What we know:
single chain; 2 domains; two-stranded antiparallel sheet; 67% helix
Amino acid sequence: MADLINLIENWLENLILGWGASQELTLFILQALGSVLVVIICFVIVIALIWVERKLAGRIQDRFGPNRAGPFGIFQSFADIIKIFTKEYITPEGAEKGFYNVAPVLAIASVLAIWAVFPFAVNVLGADIHVGVLYIVAVGSFGILAILMAGWSSNNRYSLLGASRSVAMLISYEIPMVVSLLVPVLLAHSMKLSDIISAQQPWWNLIVAPLAALVFLISSMAEIGKAPFDLLEAESELVAGYHTEYSGMKFGMFYVAEFLHQYTVGALITIFFLGGWGGPLAVQWPILGFIYFHFKTFVVYLVISWIRLSLPRIRIDAMLNLNWKFLIPVSFINLVAVAIADRVMLEFSVARWIYVGIMFGLNIFILLVSLFLAGKTSPEVERETFPANRPVAVPPGTESK
């Protein structure tokens, strides 16, 4: 039990080799089984997350949430899945059927492909490529393409408007997100995810670079399109946004992709800022590293859901102002400052605890100065007030006689 994951892997390898398979074929089969297992785990996680978020939303909004299907409503997600995936497919007239049908598949595939490089525990990972961070940024951008394809191919003005908003918002927020990712890369001196996790033992990047973690969290929430950044599918303005014309399984695929995307953001924050699978005895017992990884990811998921359920939607102009006038300048300044401080302290061989303290103080200083300057430079517009003698509506039956 001390090394359950590697024990199962060795057992499967010996079993397949015993059937007469070559070493290359055995390796291919094990990698294929691992890929299928990751996909299955992702979908099981989504089913659980749907129930968790609905119960959390119920508690925050002073109601019960799902409580009919099974104890505590745990079977509600299965009922929803059966309902959605058995509905009729309706393709709108005039739609570009090729792009219309490919868009929901691409939405899920763009998220699942990111999990191919995640280190779940020590020596338990898919592809330990040297440009893991670049791979995540490149593959994650396909989600924007899926939104654009869905909005344009639906032949619906509301869908197209929702997709057009994605161009302004998602692509804009890619900039501070990518710049904030360069800080963990700089601190680890590597783009390999396994090296970034190893560099965070025992001091997480959340402590070393809290400002980069904050910028990445805000930018990622805009990327997944959840409140307060849910302009892509603002129901009060755009019906349902880019997937207005989707129904049945195709709509369900977008729905699954949204939940999986949010959980993936939690996994990315865990890898880059929370030490990944790191924890007590995680090296000796890899199964503990797997548990630590998903526990941290789940906590980040709950924080994002809490923010989503607590804050109202932001206007598109305020959202872009936040990005271009605050997040992007702050992220670049922080990157340059961290790079200079890292180089200087490595030259003088500063002790690790002093290094962490200086980096933490530098990040907090940049954040406080940025907030102070933002408050000084933002224009204060006085709200228009109505005159005291303005005409008002009088309820029927109360007119003076």
